[in-house]
Amino acid sequence: MGTQDSVASTDDFLEYRSLLFAIAYRMLGTVMDAEDMVQDTFLKWQTVSKSQVRSVKSYLTTIITRLCIDRLRSSQVQREQYIGPWLPEPIVTDLSADPHHQVELADSLTIAFLVMLERLSPIERAVFLLREIFDYQYDEIGLIVEKSAVNCRQIARRARQQITKPRPRFSSSPEQHQQLTLKFMQACQQGEMESLLQYLADDITLWSDGGGHVVAALKPIQGAAKVSGFLRAIHRYQRKLGQISALNLVQVNGQMGIQFSISNKVETIVVLETLGHKITSIFFIRNPEKLRLQQAHHASSLH
Predict the structure, then answer these.
(1) CB under 8 Å to 243, separation ≥6 — which residues?
(2) Rounded (5°) CA angle 292-298-302
(3) For position 297, what pLDDT does the model report?
(4) Least confident window among 25-34, 117-126, 185-194, 221-230
(5) How far is the C-alpha of 163 from the C-alpha of 51, rounded, in Å?
(6) pLDDT-derived band of residue 99, with 50, 70 and 90 as boundaries?
(7) 81 or 158: which carries more pLDDT confidence?
(8) What average pLDDT does this structure show over 31-46?
(9) How far is CA 77 from CA 6, 71, 82, 204, 207, in A?
(10) DSSP-derived secondary structure for the chain
(11) More confident residue, 98 or 196
(12) Which of 136, 169, 250, 298 lies 20 to 30 A from 286 at CA?
């Protein structure tokens, strides 16, 4: 890389690679796009001379944030044309896995939180994440998104109001969430969806993302009675087809979730949002494009 003025690019980049992926994944909601942005950031970084860089962290954060804003803007049309609800691509690991792997698995990584971020514009999303999750100062954020610090403070306040309006962000203890996930899993295994009714919030919403590739609800389903009816219909449909799902507990974006497999093929990832002792949202991620990493991992674990 050679000249005296060149940046010690690889070592400096690798030091912050996990941070860059963490920012990109929360900005974009898909692993593939986040990895693309990290790679594009590295390619840009290799062209930078040392004299341009005061802070490696700030410089790299600026590159990847601007790339993600551009990617979000270009993908907005695709999101509008997406068949059915759009949900993030899950990061799934074994329950025994160390949560401190390539991203920090935290409350800001849950499927429910990433879904809420979809309400924000690309700039709002960037400012909110950099301030609230990654703890950058407004002066620094202003330089990254090319706005004044005062403007960024206003953007962050507006974004915060949109994110926190519906209900508390972090609503159940991990133990409560796990208990409800286990009860949901048991009801699915036994086909006793009526037993779930007592745990469903009155205003529960079920999201099902098939992307037009597999059977899924084309609109969010709201209300305990309708959600329970939908779950019963799924169970009856699978029994009619003679399909028996193998259910496994997994870690989905840092929370306990459920992996549904049929004939050793991952079909669905389910994760719940909970408030106290009630289930407030159910996320069914069924789009095969968003399960390819889980399928590859599942297949390798069978050998």
Answers:
(1) 262
(2) 145
(3) 57
(4) 185-194
(5) 39
(6) very low
(7) 158
(8) 95
(9) 39, 11, 9, 28, 20
(10) --STTB--HHHHHHHTHHHHHHHHHHHHS-HHHHHHHHHHHHHHHTT-BGGG-S-HHHHHHHHHHHHHHHHHHHHHHHHHH-SS---PPP-EE-TTS-SBSSSB--GGGSHHHHHHHTTS-HHHHHHHIIIIIT---HHHHHHHHTS-HHHHHHHHHHHHHHHHSSS-SS-S-HHHHHHHHHHHHHHHHHT-GGGGGGGEEEEEEEEEE-TTTS---SS-EESHHHHHHHHHHHHHHHHHHT---EEEEEEETTEEEEEEEETTEEEEEEEEEEETTEEEEEEEE--GGGSHHHHHHHHHHT-
(11) 196
(12) 169
Residue 292, judged by CB atoms within 10 A of its CB (0-12, 13-18, 19+), counts as middle
Question: pLDDT grade, residue 295 (50/70/90)?
Answer: low
Cα(7)–Cα(51) distance, integer angstroms: 8
Please report, for residues 112, 238, 284, the alpha-carbon distance to residue 218 in angstroms, rounded to integers and kept in the order given: 19, 19, 12
| Residues across the chain | 303
Separation CA 98–CA 96 (nearest Å): 7
- pLDDT > 90 fraction of the chain, expressed in percent and rounded: 64
Using alpha carbons only, what angle is made at residue 235 by residues 234 and 239, rounded to the nearest 5 degrees?
A: 115
- Global pTM reads 0.88
Confirm if 42 and 59 have CB atoms less than 8 A apart.
Answer: no
Sign of CA pseudo-dihedral 12, 16, 18, 23? negative
